[in-house]
Design brief:
By secondary structure, the protein is mainly β. It has a domain of 124 residues. It is built from two helices and 14 strands. A six-stranded antiparallel β-sheet has the order 1-4-5-8-9-12, with no helix packed on it.
Length: 210
C-alpha cells in the first residue's frame, strides 16, 4: 500500500472513531434509569451454597436527574416550581413517571396498598411533602395517546389516588448529587421508603399488610 493510500485510510479511520465517540456522547441519557429494590419474607436454604428463596420483591423504578449546580427547591411562592415544570405535582424523578411495584400488600399512611403496580408523585410544599401513591399508568413515550397513563406528572389529577401520606423531612450532612430512592430499616414486617437529593431526605414508613 502506498504512503498516500495508507495516510488516507488512517484519516478515514480517525474520522470514524471521532464520529463514533461523538455519537456515543450525544446518546448518553442525562437522567439515567434507576431502580431501588428490596426482597423480604424469604429464607436461606440450608447448605454450603445457600440461596435466598421464596422472597417477595418491592421496587421503585425512576429517572435519576443530577443536580448540576441548580438550586432545586426554590422558596416561598416558587417552592417546587423548577421540579414540577408546570405540572401540579412532582414526578419524584425524571422523564417517565416513577413507579412502585410490590408483590406484597403494603400499608402506607395507615391505608392499604394492595400488591400491584402504582405511580408515585410528591406534592411539594415548604416544610411539608406528601407522598402520593396513584393508579395512574405511566407512558413509555411522552407522545403516547393513552389517556389512562401519564408522562411524568403532567395532566395528573387526584382521581386515581390510593394514598396521600405525609413525609418526614430531614436535612442531610452532605449533598446527594443524583436523585436516589432507597429502602431503609427493612424487616419482614416494616420498612421505610426514602428519597434523597441535595441535602434533603424525605421518607415515609410502611408495613407489610395481610
Amino acid at each position: 500500500m502506498s504512503r498516500k493510500l495508507l495516510a488516507g485510510a488512517l484519516a478515514v479511520l480517525t474520522v470514524a472513531i471521532l464520529a463514533a465517540a461523538i455519537m456515543a456522547q450525544s446518546a448518553r441519557v442525562s437522567s439515567p434509569d434507576g431502580i431501588a429494590s428490596t426482597e423480604i419474607r424469604g429464607k436461606y436454604a440450608a447448605g454450603p451454597d445457600s440461596a435466598y428463596q421464596g422472597g417477595k420483591w418491592i421496587e421503585v423504578t425512576y429517572g435519576r436527574p443530577i443536580k448540576r449546580g441548580r438550586e432545586l427547591w426554590g422558596s416561598g411562592s416558587t417552592y417546587g416550581q423548577l421540579l414540577n415544570s408546570g405540572a401540579p405535582v412532582w414526578r419524584a424523578g425524571a422523564n417517565v413517571s416513577t413507579r412502585l411495584k410490590t408483590e406484597l400488600p403494603l400499608v402506607i399512611g395507615g391505608k392499604p396498598v394492595p400488591a400491584g403496580e402504582y405511580t408515585l408523585f410528591i406534592d411539594l410544599k415548604p416544610s411539608s411533602w406528601t407522598l402520593i401513591v396513584s393508579r395512574w399508568g405511566a407512558k413509555k413515550d411522552e407522545n403516547s395517546p393513552d389517556r389512562q397513563a401519564l408522562w411524568g406528572s403532567f395532566d395528573y389529577t387526584p382521581a386515581k389516588d390510593v394514598v396521600r401520606a405525609p413525609m418526614k423531612l430531614e436535612v442531610l450532612p452532605h449533598s446527594v448529587d443524583q436523585l436516589t430512592w432507597a429502602f431503609l430499616d427493612v424487616s419482614d414486617a416494616v420498612g421505610t421508603l426514602a428519597i434523597e437529593w441535595d441535602k434533603t431526605m424525605a421518607s415515609v414508613a410502611f408495613r407489610v399488610g395481610q
